[in-house]
Design goal:
single chain, 122 residues, mainly beta, SH3 type barrels, OB fold (Dihydrolipoamide Acetyltransferase, E2P), four-stranded antiparallel sheet
Amino acid sequence: MVEIRTLKEGNYIKIDGEPCKIINMSKGKTSKHGEAKAKVEATGVFDGKKRTLVKPVTAGVEVPMILKTKGQVVSVQENTAQIMDLETYEMFDLAIPDGREVKEGEEIVYIEVEGKKALMGK
């Protein structure tokens, strides 16, 4: 748990239980009747949905543990890539995000959050 005021664009946060990457953040001024508010706009890591969170800047929010790991593309079939982890040599399939070009033999970076894996978009 961290306070919203410590977050920046590019950080990860959990909104509605889903890990998201912050794409835009704005903070308002303190009013005479309350605290300053922060508006956080983020996209889901796994589903790509845009989510918004509005809370006081002192509110605590969950930050997911993100593991960034290198892998090598073994094969590509339509919108799925077969990846081999370069440390453990584990093989698994990942969906290729829209707009991302992936070629066989290429080294890529993927992330793992709470046991789920996703290919990083460019």
